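P.,

For your records, the input lines for the assembly:
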Amino acid sequence: MTGRDLSGEVAQLEREAADALVAARSTGELEEVQSAVLGRRSPLARAHRVLAGLDPDERRAAGKALHEARTRLETLAAERAKALAAAERAAMLERDRLDLTEVTESEVRSALRRGRLHLVDQTRRELEDVFVAMGFTVAEGPEAETDWYNFEALNIPPAHPARSMWDTFYLELGQPETVLLRTHTSPVQIHLMEERPPPIHAVIPGRCYRRETPDARHLPVFHQIEGLVVDRGITFADLAGTIETFTTAYFGADIHSRLRPGYFPFTEPSAEVEVTCTICRGKGCRTCSWTGWVELAGCGMVDPAVFEAVGIDSEEWSGFAFGLGIDRCAQMRHVIADMRAMVENDVRFLRQF
Amino acid sequence: MRAPLSWLRDFAPFDTSEVPTLVAALDDLGLVVERVERVGEGLGDVVVALVEGIDAIPGADRIRLVTVDAGEGPVQVVCGAWNFSPGDLVPLAPVGTVLPGGVQIQRRTMKGATSNGMLCSGQELRLSDDHEGILVLNDVEGARPGIPVAEALGVEPDVVFDITVEGNRPDAWSVAGVARDLAARLRLPFTLPQPAPPPDLGTPVGALATLEIADLDLCPRMVVVVLDGVRVEPSPRWLARRLLLAGMRPINNVVDASNYVMLELGQPTHPYDLDRLGAPGLLVRRARPGETVVTLDGIERTLGTPGRGLGDVGEDCLICDAEGSPVGIGGIMGGESSEISDTTTRVLLEAAYFSPMAIARTSKRLGLRTEASSRFERGCDPWGIDRAVDRFCELLGAPAATGRLDVRGAVPAPLRISVAARRVRAVLGVDIDPEEAASLLEPLGFGAEPERGGLLVTVPTNRPDIRPEPHGVDDVIEEIARTYGYSRIARRRPSWPEPGGLSAYQRERRLVADVMCGVGGLEAWTPSLVDDADHVAMGLDGPAVEVSNPVVKEEAWLRRSMLPGLVRALAWNARRRQGAVRLFEIGVVFSHPGAGGSSRSARVAGSGSKTALLPGERELLSVALASDGDDARSAIAVWRVLEDALRVLEADVVADGSIPGLHPTRAARLQVAGTGATLGSVGEVDPAVASAFGHDPGHGRIGWLEVDLGVLLDPALTPRRPAEARTFSRFPSSDVDVALVVADEVPAARVQAALVAGLSGADRELLESSVLFDVYRGPGMPEGHRSLAYRLRFAAPDRTLTDAEVARLRRLAIEGAAAAGATLR
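Structure tokens returned:
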């Protein structure tokens, strides 16, 4: 074969190969064609092997022609591969087209594996976190108590009229009316002060019991969080400042607190805490009887009689205590008309928080 | 209490145009105004009208068409009252009038008849509590058609403050007491007018009656006066109206005068019909055990027997006639036998100071709480009795016998308390100099003399809330703060070096709840007070702790398990087609101290040495799994997730006996490997138990997991995986699947343990993990056997294991499994 013959043949091969590449309808087909027209067994490769038998001049010319033809074919193959891949991806995407609003309820349910904390538990955590950030530890105590812890050590002796402030469930244990379900978290104050020397900076969340018939505002079983600070040099001013810090931290910067005189046997002076009404933000509404304020908590300076009961020297140490309803906070924040919803365990109610 | 402004103004010149200021001041003093009621306003539009005619309305048998004339011609109104006739004078509220209750009168048509206003009852006008019929004004002097009713009756508009008085302030539970506090705050002069003495009968009181107190500890002081020539009749209109505004029903002038004095001064008194006393005079003594008296309400009361409460030894103060026959319970309620009646002419008035604690005990035990007992148990002023008696005599106006009987024992005297300025600052955090403190205390009736470093304070006897020194010092400081104004005390945020935070237990308890949320659990809150029948129904033996005074018997025991509550909650939701859920609860269950198990002993009130046994309390996580397809497997899966989250080193699932409430063949105990401590239980609720709590078996099985958090969260009881990070081989690992044929009675956990045990020493180090990945029962398996397929993953830290090495490890593991009776499939 001469070099001229070869050149003619290369041109012929290139045309055929190019036709085959263009004719491929998919990337898979293209790969096969590419292998057939450019691979080791392709006519082009065979033609290349013929070059060896040619004289140098012819070999140079034919070799160049062959190389150029291969380069053009490879470029063509690459272009075709790209075009076919793009078309195939476009077709795939079209096949995948999905109406994202076409999701059945059961599909949604199967994804809903996230449970919920009870609203009371969520609220308790939020309250604990606010106080922890203010430097408080969290203490807890038993739900069944003796009348010493629930009453007498808190300066409420037996038959004291103030005992009627708490309707108490008594238990059939020991002497009558000595063992009871705690009516407030305050007995934990006594445990804390008995168990460790001051200083004490603790909040005490927990479940309490009062002998009441449930209604929209009261449940016989409810939750309180109580605070106790016993340290050197603690004053009423510290109490008022702590309450204000808590109020703005928990409810928001536009909610403030004010104290007015109140009565608790275990604090002196005692105060009721009122906060800006969270419903109307202080403008006045039905919830706050158009005063702009709602009652939130009770508080006061620890009564010296309480310190005496636990053997703490009230000349060296002073302290304050405060208590508020966890359930009441949740009720205020979520505008829950009837507290009984809290214990109904309706999963629709539980899921919404 | 309800305090009319006009009454308060008897004691200090409060500005009637500054009601909001008065309310704010009362609130700030701790005398919280719950409601402000404006009365007599709105009466301005109500006029006197003459009834001209009454006609039936066709088709109506309860209402009639009344024609009245209020001076401007006939007006027709529809009226449902029948107590008047033509010619009577009645109050007419024309269209547009706003009545005292806030109701606006509108033109209405009833049964075809148009009503152009309303004829009013005494109650509708807040003039009396009579709502039976229309207020007929025929007898009212000066009532003429067309003139305002308020003018005809001489009724001034008034404001009534509904005030909550704290239990420690009996002094403020009176109109004069409120006025004293308020005047002090507003710096207005406060005066208690001196009652005018009554006409003198000329007979010494001792000639008419006697007084003896046998038990001065129960009644340290009593005063008696006798009035003669009393005419029992309705009270003057102004007095009756004040009683009504204060929320009390007028009865007759004698009873009303007694009530008026109590409302005004806070001192209850009791009038007796002297002629109905068996013997003229009073004897005060302890009730004998079982003694009875019929009180004013017609109920026979048994006295002198100890009550349930600690410290109630059954000491009741009985008021008797001079011969010792009971005529009333001292300080609580008088007796029926000597009640004032229409025919009474001679009145014996008793005013006393009773032991507050004695009154509290008797009142509580009898369940008898009266206006008088509530005041006495909080503590009245033993030296305020004289003024109360004087005021009663003045109001009744009848001639009184000369002098009074006055028997005294140990009557509380004014306390004297040294209040150091240093202590004021230490408690309040502000400097209030002694001079200012004195100016705050004196208007409240306290004496305050400067002394070295502070004030010597004399406490008036109407302030039983102030204790003697040392505690009383802080009580006086509260008074200083109260009148100074809490809002004026600067605020300070205290800080301390000790860090805040949750305990490890509290942090991990949160993690437990979060894990439960992660598996789709909704946290529930089920009752702590339950019916013991629930415990019986779930097969829990032994006693529960009983509540002495339950509200209902279904809530009379402390729960021993949360299973009934959670299953009931599932059933409740299932009835609403939303029962396919997982519920969990973290809460306390109680055990009876007599039933073994944990309990604790703690001090009781009274003498310091007595103790009582208390119920054991355990904090549990309980989970009821009722999502579609949930069963015991789901429960164990949830446990696995929890166990892993808490890094439990090793816990065993042990089916070694029945567990109350759980499915007998689908339940196991969770036990800490090594220590053997019981963590809880896992499995399914027994279907029979589930249906006992309302679960419909058609709604599927209920998986159950219960974990004692006291055990789980205590690392000493439940060891944890070490905190140090494990490192894993960077070389490729090799998986070996082993399918073993095992008899049904051999637990899979034991097979897996044996498989692992086949590898020892360095070989064990090469085992990266082992998991059960398939269970097969069916054709090809011998009867009573199943195939358990485990995947063992091996890796060496320093090289890729060769096929030969892996083959050897596989053989060792299979040999190990043989120890559990497993053979290669």
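Two observations worth noting. Chain B touches chain A through 107 residues (CB under 8 Å). DSSP finds 21 helices and 41 strands in chain B.

Regards
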